[in-house]
Amino acid sequence: MADESGGDDTPIVIKKIVKGGGHHGGAWKVAYADFVTAMMAFFLLLWLLNVTDIEEKNAISNYFSPSHPTVSQQESGAGGVMGGLSVATEGAMATNIQNLVQQKATGKGGSDDTTTQHASIDAEKEAAQELKQAEEAKLEAVKDAIEEAIAENPELAELAENLLIDMTREGLRIQVVDSEGKPMFPSGSARMYNKTRELMTQVGKAVNAVPNEISVRGHTDSIPYGSGATYTNWELSTDRANASRRVLESAQVSSNRLNNVVGKADTEHLLPDDPTNARNRRISIILLREELTDPEGYQKRVKELAEEKRAKLGAPAPALPTDTPATDTPVREIDPNATPSIPAPKSGRFNKTDGDVQFP
Q1: Which pTM was predicted?
Q2: Looking at domain 133-297, which CATH architecture does it have?
Q3: How far apart are alpha carbons 200 and 284 in whole angstroms?
Q4: For the chain, first and last CA: distance in Å?
Q5: Dihedral (C-alpha) 74, 77, 82, 87: value to the nearest 10 degrees?
Q6: Which helix (H) or strand (E) covers residue 243, if one does?
Q7: Which residues are within 8 A (CB) of 11 and not within 5 positions of it... i.e. 6 or more apart?
Q8: Disulfide: which of 28, 51, 218, 291 matches 298 by Cβ 3.0-4.6 Å?
Q9: What does the pLDDT look like over 180-190, one tens digit per residue?
Q10: DSSP percent split of the chain into helix, strand, coil, nearest 5
């Protein structure tokens, strides 16, 4: 009951609730994970000790010895304890069993051998270049002979502008070209004028000075025949090329030298931006390079000339590749189909096994 002063004597109870019950947090899980990790590392160490022999254990010991002289100081991955190899050839501890990157033997005169090999390769390049220059010199002589023959003939001198001679990747190209007012053939006909025949004859006499094979090609402009015509620029260009072939043969050009006789119609204009121009009508006579018509014979001549150059330089011919690697240290060949064998026990406490984890 309340006292006379009006105060209340009822006791006040304060209740405190402790959360969490009987749990103690997740710290034990971290400790358990560390324990499992340590045990896994321990058993891994035991397994490694079981599969390594005395020499490998010494190599591991030497690796961690900073004063050991044979430990590789490279950090490329090629100087590891287990002899792992990388793309680089660095590392003194690289194994010679799984030699992924073969080391080249230099011998006593390593730099001299390299110089000799370079000289041998350069000999073939120089031989090919010499043959090419010699062939071009002969073709240039043909060009000079044709120009001289035309200049000395008053009847042909006025046709000098109808003759184009240049050197291409295929060889020496001689083109008999129409011009405005000076056609080589009547319009739409394959029967050439007498002046054209004489010009072709002079070309035939000049090309007899070299043995190169010949390609004869006929070209037309883009002016088509009338609708419904069965004779087109294809037939016309082919017939004109064939007529030119007959004139060359009459000038004693052997038929065995004729590589091809083709009609190109209006597919390869001399003036692509002006397809109807008269100069697009032409006959092309190409003295083909030997390396295009007889590649095997050409390569044989290159090698023969290169051999002569090597003989003068005292350089040996390039060695053919062999299956035997050129290394300073012997390399053990491994048969991929062979069954792995367990090595015989060695002296010492630890003996090498087949590497398989064995359970009781």
Answers
A1: 0.56
A2: 2-Layer Sandwich (3.30)
A3: 11
A4: 85
A5: -120
A6: helix 233-250
A7: none
A8: 291
A9: 889 999 999 99
A10: 40, 10, 50
